[in-house]
Amino acid sequence: MEARKARIRITLQTKGITQDSELNPSEAYTDWLAVWAEPLEKTSREFYRLSTQNTEITEAFRIRYKRGVTSRQRIKVGSRYLEIIGEPIDEGERHISLLLACKGVA
After folding, report:
1. Across residues 66-94, what is the average pLDDT?
2. For the structural domain made of 3-104, what CATH number should be given?
């Protein structure tokens, strides 16, 4: 992964249970990790490979490898939220970068 291509700042969020002022539990996402990401163009080979596996994909990102990234998390990009579809792909299983396939959350 080339550092100059990672031009978008994304935040990975994890779902957890929080309590309001009346101690009622509710599910909410909290920020876990902010990283630089390379957005994959829809015409790129990687995006095509991901979209043939799942047609719901609207965006894809490449980030530096980070242990603990799962499909149970979501991504915040600016004011938009994206759901991670499927488990992140460790390219070449060398722990250098991860491919994240995403779809928008309404």
Report:
1. 93
2. 2.40.10.270
